[in-house]
Specification:
CATH topology: Rossmann fold
CATH architecture: 3-Layer(aba) Sandwich
Order of helices and strands: EEEEEHEHEHEHEEEEHEH
Helix content: 25-40%
CATH superfamily: HUPs
Number of strands: 13
CATH class: Alpha Beta
Length: 255
Amino acid sequence: MKIVVLVKEVPDPNALRLDPRTGQLQPGTPTVANEYDLYGMEAAAAIKEERDDVEIVVASLGSGRDPVNRCLAMGADRAVVIDDSTLTGGDTGVTAQVLASYLKQEGFDILLLGQESSDSGTGDIGPRLSALLDVPLVSNLIDLAFDGATLSLKREIEDGHQSLDVTPPAILCALSGLPEPRYPSLKGIMASRKKQTDVQTAADLGIARSELSSRVTWGDLFIEEQEAQGVIVESEDLDDAVDQFVAFLKEKNVL
């Protein structure tokens, strides 16, 4: 059985550095693996621990290596990085087309990825891949069990939970209700350095950049300015200060 885990490199949500003049992230802003993707990796590692016939392949689109290295240290067997400067700046439609081309070549029984990423937060990569590959999708995944033939799943819905059984192949979008991603052990980190990481380009996937067209463009990032307004009551006489305060509250229809 082959499990493919998609992982994205994103700016560290706890260390964002935004240049107010350009509306862009400052150079040197720390990056991390998308958290929801790591929940998917943890689910894949748990299945592998229970079965001897599981291969985990972690794949990422972009130049970053830290996310795939972490997944290798968590238990993935090998990694694929799709690194091509001609794909930079594409929207999620372009991203999905590129990943679909890779997945058609790679093949999979289970595809795990995060429900959404912490940077763009569109949440549409999973559904797009489902449509492009004609593979069933289960979103908002919070529990997973696999008996070798059937995936027993639980997903979060608006007013509760929904349980369902799915026969692979399937695409699963992970939420934080799944077990917490493990921290790589020293043994896992050392072992990851010997594992294979293949680098592919659009040409390797049989894709010409001219075939890909972005339909969505993003504006500059910005931090909304908030202005606090208030009134300072200045009076040496306490009764007068109280009268001013009460008058202010009545003016605002609070009293």
